[in-house]
Specification:
Length: 343
């Protein structure tokens, strides 16, 4: 008997659903076939606590977070940091190096200047002089890391680190690790566009993730991506932006120009093993743009899906390894990938 026939007429398995606000956005968790005795009401505060702990480490929106304290610290000597904070900073530095600085976690002063940070929104487009001044404080090479004991050293006391491009993925990773520790084997965690999926959904299929069309005014599905035992993250220019004099300015900033990237690329989705990594790469490829982005994705063997604006329409295409990764994520190979991909 085929799998499809077996599933025929069967009721979907039970699913627990929970969610709430975090990191200025929303998270949601679905658990299929939860272990006996586990309820959504029980999970809710515990998942929220995991995310609160992440915010307390790496958020620039929380003035008391470890990262905010590091940003306020004017010292140019080694500053001790937690292993968790160092791990996220280190991933940022790794992607910075691989992208020739297109991805840059010291981008904070420019992000704030353009009104996309925790400071009060800037009124419109900053002046050339303001951009020049902010750029002086930006540069991933101005930040040195030490593994043990974990510490960072700033070349300028006014360096300002912004981990927002990695934070949602990192948050999804931490929730996933916590669910794993509870013996939960089938779940989907979403922190905004950063997803961790494990096992199978209620219909015993891979979790279905919708890639949106990159349009600010409505939500429409461009493509459904099935994933299991994978992380996926989408970055786009169509949710967080402002318009001034008919021009669109989004929250992905090119460190070279000090200004938001152009609008050719609508979104980038990256699939891999670790949420923090795919989240960072999705932003990085957005900044690199529709030419350099796909080229680097291929060179790095990244499974990435690009949506470009083409005249009045849009066009989607995958990197070389994208469809291969999807094939592996499919239900037929579930057993082969049914383990934590980080191991
Ligand atoms: P979202 O937060 O909507 O998921 P991203 O993951 O793409 O989007 O992160 C965008 C955030 O990353 C910006 O709001 C900003 O804080 C930060 N950022 C902007 N430009 C860069 C860059 N060139 N390198 C690293 N981080 C950036
Ligand atoms: Mg990102």
């Amino acid at each position: 008997m085929s799998l499809a026939l077996l599933g025929c007429g069967q009721q979907p398995d039970p699913v627990l659903e929970l969610g709430g606000p975090t990191m200025g956005t929303y998270y949601s968790v679905k658990v299929a076939r939860a272990p006996a005795g586990i309820t959504a009401d029980q999970l809710q505060p515990k998942v929220a606590a995991v995310l609160d702990a992440v915010v307390a480490e790496i958020s620039t929106y929380d003035e008391t977070s470890e990262l905010s304290r590091l940003n306020r610290n004017p010292s140019t000597e080694w500053i001790p940091v937690s292993e968790n904070l160092l791990a996220v900073i280190a991933e940022g530095q790794r992607i910075a190096k691989l992208t020739g600085g297109a991805f840059d976690i010291t981008i904070g002063p420019l992000v704030n200047l353009w009104g996309f940070g925790p400071e009060a929104p800037h009124d419109g487009v900053p002046s050339e002089a303001e951009i020049r001044a902010a750029k002086m404080r930006v540069g991933w090479e101005k930040l040195e890391l030490r593994a043990s004991p974990p510490a960072v050293r700033k070349a300028r006391g006014d360096l300002y680190i912004d981990l927002s491009a990695l934070g949602e993925g990192y948050g999804a990773d931490r929730v996933a690790a916590w669910l794993d520790a509870q013996g939960i084997t089938d779940y989907m965690v979403a922190v905004a566009g950063a997803i961790r999926a494990k096992g199978l959904n209620a219909k015993r299929e891979p979790w279905a993730i919708a890639i949106e069309q990159p349009m600010p005014d409505r939500r429409a599905v461009h493509r459904i991506i099935p994933i299991s035992n994978r992380a996926l993250s989408t970055s786009g220019d169509y949710r967080n932006f402002f318009e001034k004099d008919g021009k669109h300015y989004s929250h992905e900033i090119d460190p070279k120009t000090g200004a938001p990237v152009d609008r050719k690329l609508g979104s980038v989705t990256v699939i891999g093993a670790v949420g923090m990594v795919v989240d960072g790469w999705a932003t990085a490829l957005m900044v690199l743009g529709d030419q350099a982005g796909p080229a680097l994705a291929d060179a790095q063997g990244l499974a990435a899906y690009f949506i470009v604006r083409d005249g009045d329409g849009i066009r989607g295409f995958g990197s070389r390894s994208f469809e291969d990764v999807l094939a592996v994520a499919g239900v037929g190979d579930h057993a082969a990938v049914n383990r934590d991909p980080r191991q």
